Amino acid sequence: MTSYDTVARAATAEVEDRGSRFVCTIRRVGDEDEARALVAVLRREHPGARHHCSAFVIGPRGEVQRSSDDGEPAGTAGAPMLEVLRGAGVSDVAAVVTRWFGGTLLGAGGLVRAYGDAVRAALAEAGTLRRSLLTELALDLDHADAGRVEGELRSRGVTVLEVAYDARVRLLLAAPASEVERVTDLVAAATGGAAAPAPVGERWIDAPG
After folding, report:
1. What are the residue ranges in the chain where pLDDT is below 50?
2. Which stretches make up the Impact N-terminal domain (predicted)?
């Protein structure tokens, strides 16, 4: 697994059914603690709501998947919410649907539909972006050459993550494993063979834009 999709931005969306309001909050999260913290925040913000049902998927392969009906009939809230997230193919995402009861019972089918529709609507607002696992490459340069080399690499589509200034300048580059050789060749061309990038690790990076 070298790439996966997540949400591009935080979003909220609301659906209504027979007086009941279902407001879905979508957030990008890095672990279970962040997902559970989102539920806690929404409980504090909306103490008058009857339910705060949740679902989240975390990890490049969606290794962690959890859902909660929060008092709704079993299987009518958290499970359909989780199914929508799975169907969208996104990870590192938490969805919380806050429900205000409108006085009319919706039945199991109505609840499944409302909770699922709320998550679908919020996902549409959030959009998606791709995350890729890239190799980090450290490139040490003299101060006199650093600006020119950085500019040449950027102009050829090389990702520059960081620039650190010390006795020398260190550029931290990133590239897919399949592109490391190309980046190495570009560095050699830009420096006349005087410098070469060294792999120093891997990092998940959001796609530009």
Report:
1. none
2. 18-123
